Structures are given as structure tokens and as C-alpha cells.
Amino acid sequence: MSSDDLFNKLIADLAKSCHGSAELRAVKGFLANDLKKTSQREAFLFPKLVQAAITWDAVKDTVWADAEKREENRFPFLQGDVIGTTTVLALGMAEITQDHDLWLVLSPDCDCVRSSYVRVAPVFAVKKGPKVDNDRTQRFGYSLKLASPKAFPLPPLPGDIDQDLRGYFADLETPYFIAADDKGLATSYASMTMAAWHLLNGLIQENETRAADIAEATAIRTRQ
Length: 224
Hints:
It is a single chain. The protein is α+β, with helices and mostly antiparallel strands. It has one domain. The chain has helices at about 5-15, 20-35, 40-45, 55-65, 65-70, 110-115, 135-145, 195-210, 215-220, and strands at about 50, 80-85, 90, 100-105, 115-125, 150-155, 165-170, 175-180, 185-190. Strands 1, 2, 3, 4, 5, 6, 7, 8 and 9 form a nine-stranded antiparallel β-sheet that branches. The longest helix has 16 residues, at about 195-210.
């Protein structure tokens, strides 16, 4: 096989997953078809999504072999952590006007440690009973099916006591950021399980790289 043929094959293989994965589509099919009701999805998914917040102090000695490596990887929070902070930046919005205080960390772990900015998504509570918000309830339902790359579901968090709280969803659409100097001001409330972490990354990939019509997008780029 020539170098050109090998490269073309590698690109063709890459194309199968770089605009969303077949595996994520299979998960969506399972959630939509095998679990017919929103209540079923809540009961099934919620125990599989979060765990107690993972701290650097708790894992540093078992993950990194020497002190230098431990210090190099000192993290304030991890990708997929649900955190509390009001020190968040948004495009076109002054920092002092930001009063939302619950966020999902989207940036990779290494960026949480070293990057000048960490991307986060606002997390919104979904209520039941007299405090129900129909728009939020609808988006919450979509998130439980992973039907849109713009929202990710989250269960009630450790320590939540509101009896009217159903859960949360993170809005992945609008970019917000935490500056490096402000990372230490955030409080981690929960970390994702391995399953949820993989699901989140699949959805982030789809949100950032999806082609609504792959045939149309291909035609545009190959037109001479």
C-alpha cells in the first residue's frame, strides 16, 4: 500500500467517528427505545452518573509515584465535576454581573491543572410540583435521552435536601470560562463516574464537531 493509499484509509477510518460516534448513537437508541418513560430513564441513569467529589489529596499518593509528579498534577477539580462558584467569565458579560453559581466542568483534566482558562457549563435545577418550569422540564427530558448535544442530565447532588428537586441539566451550548487565578475559589460538589465521563465526552464531541447533514457537508468540501 502506498503512503497516499494508507493516509486516505486512515482518514476514511477517522471520518467514521470524528463527527459523532456510532457508539453514542447506540446509547441514545437504548435510552429512547428500551426506557420509554422519562421516569424510567431517571431511575436507571441517576445512580450511574455521579459520585462523591474526587479531591487531589485523596488520590495523589495512589495515582502518582513521586512528589514532583504529584505537585505537577495538583488539580482543583476535574472534567465532569459539578462545582460551585460565581467567579466565571462569559463573552460579552462583565465578571461582576455573574450571579449563577452551579457549573459543570467541560475542559479536560490537564486544562484544569495548567490552562489559563477552563470551560464550564451552567447547571440548572429542575423542580416538580408547584415550582415546575415547563421549559426546563422539557430540556431535562431531552437531556435524559441525550437527544441533543446541548444538554447533559445530572441527578440530585450529595447534600441536596429540596424535596421538590428532580435533578439538573447542564447547558452545553453557551461558553463560559474560569480564569486560572480563580480556580481555587470553586467548590466541588460531585465528580462523574466513569460511565458518565465517557457519555459527557461523547456529547461534547458531538456538540463541537457534528455535521447536521454529513452528505451535504461532504459535498460542500469536495466541490471544485
